[in-house]
Amino acid sequence: MRTERVSGNGQADRREPKVVVGAAIIADGRVLACARSAPPEVAGKWEFPGGKVEPGETETAALIRECAEELAVRVEIGDRIGRDVRMAHGRSVLKVYAARLHHGDQPKALEHSELRWLTAAELDSVTWLPADAPIVAALRPLLATG
Ligand SMILES: Nc1nc2c([nH]c(=O)n2[C@H]2C[C@H](O)[C@@H](COP(=O)(O)OP(=O)(O)OP(=O)(O)O)O2)c(=O)[nH]1
């Protein structure tokens, strides 16, 4: 969806929604879930590591950068998981990709309050950010089949 705003000179200005990317890092039939430490209204809610795609950056590059910044790991990005999820009244969109860790890399919670590796059966044991619900649903059968 496009949003339309009126810019300073009074002309209508069409803007694409901001893209937020998330990495569903999968290893041994488990996915890495990360508890947000901030801001207060979402602290303690669980998400996929990731963040906003910077201008001129590809979604893959953003995921690689965010995983390095947040977890100190190198990742290989795979297929999309689930659909685009509209957030913030259509001002942003969440896109999640499957990811694999480079051999030997171990995620560290540099920005999150906690990390957990969840099996399909454990996906509902944490409270995900609301936008993640359809992604978690799409992920469940992928984890179950390994
Ligand atoms: N990374 C991530 N963000 C999510 C998920 N689900 C969800 O609703 N979000 C929301 C939370 C935030 O409002 C937004 C991501 O913003 P962020 O603050 O983490 O992005 P960023 O790392 O680029 O942060 P900043 O530089 O703007 O501070 O998307 C998810 O699974 N992963």
Automatic annotation (TrEMBL):
Keyword Hydrolase: yes
Entry cofactors: Mg(2+)
Pfam families membership: NUDIX
PROSITE patterns registered for this protein in UniProt: NUDIX
EC number: 3.6.1.55
InterPro entries: MutT-like, Nudix_hydrolase, NUDIX_hydrolase-like_dom_sf, NUDIX_hydrolase_dom
Enzyme class per UniProt: hydrolase
Keywords from the named record: DNA damage, DNA repair, DNA replication, Hydrolase, Magnesium, Metal-binding, Mutator protein
Source species: Micromonospora inositola
Catalytic activity: 8-oxo-dGTP + H2O = 8-oxo-dGMP + diphosphate + H(+)
Protein name stated in the entry: 8-oxo-dGTP diphosphatase
Gene3D superfamilies (alphabetical): Nucleoside Triphosphate Pyrophosphohydrolase
One record GO biological process: DNA repair
Family classification: Belongs to the Nudix hydrolase family.
GO molecular function, one term: metal ion binding
SUPFAM superfamilies assigned: Nudix
Nudix hydrolase domain mapped to chain residues: 16-143
